[in-house]
Amino acid sequence: MFTGDITVNFTYSLVWEQSDIQWASRWDTYLSMSNAQIHWFSILNSLVVVFFLAGVLAAIIIRTLKKDIANYNRLDEEMVSVLF
Fold first, then answer.
1. Angle at the Cα of 75 (from 72 to 79), degrees rounded to 5?
2. How far is residue 76's CA from residue 66's CA, in Å, rounded to a whole number?
3. pTM, two decimal places
4. Going by C-beta distance under 8 Å and a sequence separation of 6 or more, which residues neighbour residue 23?
5. Nearest to 29 by CA among 21, 37, 18
6. pLDDT band with cut points at 50, 70 and 90 for residue 15
7. CA 9 – CA 3 distance, rounded (Å)
8. What is the 3-state secondary structure (H, E, C) of the chain?
9. Where are the chain's structural domains?
10. Tens-digit pLDDT profile for residues 44-81
11. Residue 37: is its pLDDT beyond 80?
């Protein structure tokens, strides 16, 4: 087990270079759609995960609501039996 003190220095440096590219077109290189491939598996996988999580959430909410409604109905029946 280490018990001594260690000092670690992190450094970095920058070099700013002037460019001839206009500000409005700086992303054109990255956003060009040449040879674009649609990743259908990733899209389908994301949709499956979203629908699965929505189903789990819906099941939890429905189960909770059923229990709450059953408790309210039971309390309502008890109140009616007490009053009459």
1. 135
2. 15
3. 0.50
4. none
5. 21
6. very high
7. 19
8. CCCCCCCCCCCCCCCCCCCCCCHHHCCHHHHCCCCCCCCHHHHHHHHHHHHHHHHHHHHHHHHHHHHHHHHHHHHHHHHHHHHC
9. 39-83
10. 999 999 999 999 999 999 999 999 999 888 887 877 77
11. no
